[in-house]
Design goal:
By secondary structure, this protein is mainly α. It has 14 helices and 3 strands. Strands 1-2-3 form a 3-stranded antiparallel beta sheet. Strand 2 (158-159) and strand 3 form a beta hairpin. It is globular, with a radius of gyration of 27 Å. The N and C termini lie far apart (77 Å).
Length: 403
């Protein structure tokens, strides 16, 4: 009926008004269809959602060009009712935004949802989803886009539908250099502690993925909670390493810690992220920069040594294999070494940059270009302890391979 009115209208102004109404209806239809497709499990319709989001964005462009055609009669939309019904905030603190601002917010949300639909091309693994979440969070998306992404990838406690987080944890351990023999040809008594460990590790991975989609300030507040869970898993992982270590490996300096090293890898990653978020959120005053850069360099150096330990152990595992085992294990070992190469180099580069920044800030302090401020209710030492108490989560490791 509206399209017929457009064709039969003799006035240009009437045609423009009817066309504007059609654009608004099509915009709502395309945006709703995109959300419906994103609701479907197993990411089957994420790619088709991109088509509807693109169409909605085109409709939005048309709406912007026709937003000044007419004026809504007074009393049709009551701002006071909107404040009370559509907002969870008290009515006195809620503000009704202009139409142009609302259209800009819709456009930004559509852009973020379009990026979220690219998750359909992801490999089904913890590392790929984690890196995608991290890159997505740099866009500072709104809560709708963040919740949509998580709902599309994590369904009923499973990653991208078919894979449980326990299986995700097992795959992550294998890709980090853990020998396949830990999951094959073991009796039930030996498999039980590994199975329980992988179950708990999967729960922590799921928690961290959920935390990653918080806003930046809340992400920094939640990371210590994840580290606390990893600290508990560290004791369990070291116990499993002790159980499977041989008599020769139990000698000082020769111990191979596979499960414990993987947990340390996660702890170093999270702690470095926590420190770097402090710069982004402007948490640190200028006089603390040298201390923060020193800690980042220290953590990244341990992180680099930890990865070196994993790579060396992976190569040693390949050397100990028989010819029959080598055929099956070469592909696994090659994927581990290939996956670690770029992160390994990246950690080293970031460590050198942090070391250079620490030396520069120390030089500025030495020439008194940067000074500590006077604190009326404490001193610099107490402030330092309060600021960096997160490093208590990195205790429990004195392995010679990391010194």
């Amino acid at each position: 009926e509206i399209l017929e009115n457009i064709e039969t209208s003799t006035s240009d102004q009437d045609k423009q008004l009817w066309t504007a109404i059609v654009d608004r209806i099509r915009f709502r239809k395309n945006l709703l269809q995109a959300h419906i497709n994103m609701d479907k499990p197993m990411m089957k319709e994420l790619e088709s959602s991109q088509t509807f989001l693109s169409a909605a964005k085109n409709n939005l462009t048309q709406i912007k060009s026709t937003s000044s055609l007419g004026r809504v009669p007074e009393g049709v939309f009551d701002p006071k009712v909107t404040k009370r019904i559509m907002s969870s905030s008290p009515p006195r603190s809620a503000t009704v935004i202009a139409i142009s601002s609302a259209l800009d917010l819709f456009e930004e949300q559509i852009n973020h949802l379009t990026v979220a639909t690219q998750a359909s091309k992801l490999e089904i693994s913890y590392f790929s989803v984690r890196d995608f979440y991290l890159e997505f969070s740099y866009l500072v998306p709104d809560v709708v886009a963040r919740s949509r992404l998580h709902a599309s990838l994590v369904i009923a406690g499973k990653l991208i539908g078919p894979i449980t987080f326990r299986e995700t944890a097992v795959t992550a351990l294998k890709r980090s250099g853990l020998s396949l023999s830990f999951f094959e040809n073991l009796d039930e008594k030996a498999q039980l502690p590994i199975s329980n460990f992988c179950e708990r590790l999967g729960s922590v991975m799921m928690l961290y993925l959920r935390v990653l989609l918080n806003n930046r300030a809340r992400l920094r507040r939640k990371i210590p909670h994840v580290l606390s869970d990893l600290c508990i898993l560290q004791n369990e992982a070291d116990g499993i390493d002790e159980m499977f270590s041989t008599a020769d490996e139990k000698q000082p300096g020769k111990r191979t810690r596979l499960f414990g090293t993987f947990i340390l890898e996660m702890k170093f990653y999270l702690t470095s992220q926590w420190l770097q978020l402090g710069f982004e959120l402007e948490v640190y005053p200028q006089e603390e920069y040298d201390v923060v850069y020193w800690y980042i360099d220290y953590l990244l150096s341990l992180h680099f040594n930890n990865q070196t330990h994993l790579i060396t152990n992976t190569k040693n595992t390949l050397a100990k294999m028989t010819k029959q085992q080598r055929k099956k294990g070469e592909k696994h070992v090659h994927s581990v070494l290939t996956g670690f190469f770029l992160p390994h180099v990246s950690v080293l580069v970031h460590s050198h940059i942090s070391k250079a920044m620490f030396r520069m800030m120390s030089g500025l302090r030495k020439i008194e270009a940067v000074k500590y401020k006077d604190f009326p209710f404490g001193d610099a030492a107490l402030r330092f302890m309060k600021r960096f108490n997160i490093f208590l989560f990195l205790e429990q490791r004195t392995s010679a391979s990391l010194l």
